[in-house]
Amino acid sequence: MLTANKLMPRGGGLAPVLLRRAATVELDWDVRQKSRFDATDSQGRQLGVFLSRGTAVRGGDVLVAEDGSLVKVIAAKQPVLVITHCTEHGTPFDLTRAAYHLGNRHVPIELQPDHLKIEPDHVLAGMLRSMHLIVREAEEAFEPEGGAYGAHGGGHGHSHGGNAPVGPVLHPDAYAAPHAHDHGHDHAPSHGHHHDRGHSH
Q1: Are residues 46 and 23 part of one domain?
Q2: Taking a C-beta distance cutoff of 8 angstroms, is the pair 1, 47 a contact?
Q3: How many helices and strands (H and E) does the chain possess?
Q4: Distance CA 152, CA 159 (A)
Q5: Taking each helix axis from N to C terminus, what angle separates 93-104 and 122-130, rounded to the nearest 10 degrees?
Q6: Which residue pairs, CB below 8 angstroms and at least 24 apart, start in 38-42?
Q7: Parts of the chain with a pLDDT under 70
Q8: Dihedral Cα 147, 33, 96, 177, nearest 10 deg
Q9: On the CB side of 173, how many CA atoms lie within 13 Å of its CA?
Q10: I need a surface site. Which of 79, 115, 128, 148 has the fewest CB within 10 A?
Q11: Straight-line distance from the first to the last Cα atom of the chain, in angstroms, rounded to the nearest whole number
């Protein structure tokens, strides 16, 4: 097994030609958030990665093996929930509210200008849909913000048993099934949530 104990963030300082020639290794977030793990690179070599405790590996980072060879890290696609605001009933500010409530529960979140990403969780998906956000399942790379995992190792600070997690709740139905709104029209199924005219505010 080849040992790698040095990490070059984003391959900083390396010539582009060296990065193009480097072996690669695809890792999901569950592995990349750890400072010690085993992996197999694109050349079939077994790697033993030993980094400083608390180090998280990001897509684009480069591992340096004990023999001086380089291994570029690729963030592997994995199941995620992609969260966007509803253009009909909401505003982009809804994403800010969602990020606040997810962060309050210590949920790892990837922040983008027009969407959020979290790991699959049906309880949180229901909460977000009740806030008029669109939630869809996808297979994409996941790069959560550093502060989300620093003290918790990427774990979830909430229960999966259907109980409301600790923290403020915007809506009393936040942890029930997506509820209805008497808007006079429905959201398309592709939006990831729906409105039932049988319930009105």
Answers
A1: yes
A2: yes
A3: 5, 10
A4: 15
A5: 140
A6: 38/1, 41/71
A7: 147-201
A8: -130
A9: 11
A10: 79
A11: 62
Q: How many domains does the chain have?
A: 2
The alpha carbon of residue 46 and the mean position of all alpha carbons in its chain are separated, in whole angstroms, by 27
Query: Residue 157 gets which letter from DSSP?
Result: S
**How confident is the model at residue 63, as a pLDDT?**
98
**Is residue 65 domain-shared with residue 89, that is, in the same domain?**
no
Q: What are 68's two structure tokens?
A: 């001086």
70 and 83, same domain (yes or no): no
CB proximity list for 195: less than 8 A, separation 6 or greater: 180, 181, 183, 185, 186, 187
User: What ranges in 8-164 are assigned the alpha helix state H?
Assistant: 16-21, 29-32, 93-104, 122-130, 146-149
Q: What single-letter amino acid sits at 97?
A: R
Query: Are both 69 and 107 inside the same structural domain?
Result: no
**What pLDDT does 147 receive?**
54
